[in-house]
Design goal:
The chain is an all-alpha fold. The protein has one domain. It is built from 7 helices and no strands.
Length: 109
């Protein structure tokens, strides 16, 4: 029963990752942890694609601006590697890590 509840909570959390991309993009762009942001965005993109979620047009602009800002904070190969590692994470693997990063973002800002 407890594992089912965790799985349901995990699924609900993952379904909200597309909104994370929009809502915390500016926060992530202001951190000193661009590779963590890249990993999380990569994971969020994969999960959002799997569930056919898309950002609203207004959120897409903010996300693109934040993404460009974060990319400018690191070298392209490191950013690409973090992004691809996030994209390769399974949903079950990504959710606990994403939750930890999200909590850090919330506490830091």
């Amino acid at each position: 029963m407890r594992q089912q509840q965790f799985h349901k909570a995990s699924m609900l959390f993952c379904e909200s990752l597309d909104q994370f991309r929009a809502n915390s993009s500016l926060r992530a762009a202001q951190t000193d942890y661009p590779l963590e942001a890249a990993w999380l965005w990569g994971a969020a993109e994969t999960i959002s694609e799997a569930h056919s979620y898309a950002l609203w047009p207004a959120d897409q602009r903010a996300y693109a601006a934040a993404l460009n800002s974060v990319q400018a904070q690191t070298d392209a190969p490191a950013f690409a590697a973090a992004w691809q590692t996030g994209r390769a994470a399974t949903q079950d693997d990504a959710c606990p890590s994403a939750y930890a990063i999200l909590r850090w973002f919330e506490e830091a800002f």
